[in-house]
Each structure stands twice: as structure tokens, then as C-alpha cells.
Amino acid sequence: MIKIVVDAMGGDNSPSANVKGALTALNAIKDIELVLVGDETQIAPLLATEAYDKTRLTVLNATEVISCDDKPTEAIRTKKDSSMYNSFELLRTDEMARAIVTVGSTGALLAGTVMRLGRIKGVKRPAFCPILPTVIPGKIVAICDSGANVDCVPLWLQQFAVMGSLYISKAFGVENPRVALLNVGVEEEKGDELRKATYQLLKETPSVNFVGNMESRDLLSGGIDLVVCDGFAGNVLLKSTEGACAELMHMLKHALMSSFTSKMGALLIKKKLYAVKDLMDYNKYGGAVLLGAAKTVIKGHGSSGGEAIFHCIEQAYKMETSGLVNAIAAEMQG
Hints:
CATH superfamily of the largest domain: Isopropylmalate Dehydrogenase
Distance between the termini: 29 Å
Order of helices and strands: EHEHEHHEHEEEHEHEEHHHEEHH
Number of domains: 2
Strand order of the largest sheet: 3-2-1-4-12-11-5
Helix content: 40-55%
Largest sheet: 7 strands, mixed
CATH topology of the largest domain: Isopropylmalate Dehydrogenase
CATH architecture of the largest domain: 3-Layer(aba) Sandwich
Strand content: 15-25%
CATH class of the largest domain: Alpha Beta
Number of helices: 12
Radius of gyration: 20 Å
Shape: globular
């Protein structure tokens, strides 16, 4: 039985979405145990009308919430009855608790990981690694880092490549994942000093299938499994891609609804349009894994609904069953 801690507060739709996602996961995955951490007065009524295995779901009361307006480090130090702090304490003190899923403050999550949970020995910096779909059906691409480390050194980027490769291999079954370095051009000599030094380092890393530089326009092409970058560039890449895809769908919808003729055409391709929309829906892909943490840490979108939280829990489960944390520890200490 794998025990997963779910921070039930802090998101735009919390705690209802968190409870819904947890119950879906409980029914779908028979060997997990869940702990919902949050305001019991809000969570209990949501559970009261649902049928679920009460032996595999418990509630840990927490009266405070860390918001995105709170200063992350200060909040972890002072809000000691918050849902996120109590989630980390449970993860830290309970050997059976293996993972945390949260849609709360990203800054507080990073602070809590460093201050309360810790890193895998040998890991210099933990890094967020979200996944996105590509134009090839069933194929995904990961970005590491996407915001945890704004300023980086080559060694950190090398470690992101190692940890990300293990993640893609173990969690998604991709054999010898192709790793690229985000840059302003594909030629080896392109980029600033950080990118040039990292390029040479990745070329000499035997555990990484490094295929060279990649321009941002090729992110969704399906030719790369993992993109390595500093957190500033990675966050811009992730959000600009998500935003561009969303706006493109809005433009397409507007164009198709602009005349009677286009509406008739839209009816003919309705199923295909919905398939593309579903493909780009982040709710179906879980959250960003914080690679390098001592236990599994998953950060979902703040606006996540029940489906997204279910996939985050499913993602945490897959990471634990694949032994990812132990694999990263073995690689870093080897």
C-alpha cells in the first residue's frame, strides 16, 4: 500500500476539487492510501455524501492556508497549522508516507521541500519537471527546470538532465530518452557561456542521451523527450507554449463560428476538434514533479479541477511504483 499525502487547500477550487480527485484516485487505484490535509470543517461535508473505502482515506485537520500572497519561507516558518506545513510534517515523520500532491503556493512548496523534507544526497538543486503533449499521438515532452532555479550553473543543468532522463524512462517507459538543451540555435557554438559550458558537460555525461541544442519552436515536435534549461527560460517556455495553444484554440473557435458556412464545416470536424482540445488539456497530464526531493513531490496547477488532481495522484503513484527516487539517489551517489 502506497501512502500519498494530499494538501487539500491552497488551490482556486480547493477543497472540493482536491476531495473529488482523491476519491476518483481511491476508486481507480486499489493499493493507495490517501491522507487529506486541510480544514476538516470544509472537507467532512464533502465526504459525507460519498461512498468510499474509509480504511484507505483519512483527514488530518489543518486550520491555516498558505496563500500565494504569503512570503514562502516566512509562511513555512510561521504558519505551522497550515495544510502545506502539516503535509510536509507528515511526509517527514511517517515512513509509510511516500509522496505529497499539492496545488498550493509554488514558493512555499519549494521552501517546505528544502526546509522540512530535504534533498536526495548529491543533488545540488531540486527542479520542476512538467510534461506536455506533442504533435505525435501518445508522445510527451518534459521540461526541466520550469521555475525552481532562475539562475543556474552547468553542473545543476547536468543534474537536471540526469534526473529528468530517469523520470521519463521510469515513469513513462521511454527507452534511452532524447535530451536537448534549450538554446537560441541548434549549432554547438550558439548561446551564452552557461549554455556553451553545459553543452560540453552534457556531451560527456554517459547516462544522458544528449542530442544537442533545441530551439523553443521545436518543443512540441515529438523529436525530443526532455528539454534541459534554467528555471527562468523553462518557465517562459512552458507558459508561452500553454498560452499560445490556448489562444490558437480560441482563434480557431472564433473563425469556425464566424459564418453559417464555417459552422457547417465545424460540425463535420467536431470530433477532431475536441480531440485536439483534449490533447492540449493540462488536466489530463498531472503536475510538475519536483525532481531531487527526498520523497515524491507533485505540484499541480493552482486552477486544477478534480480530474487534474486525480492525475497528479496517479502520477505520484507511478513514480513510487517505478522507484524513481531510489534510482536518482543511486545515480547521484554512484
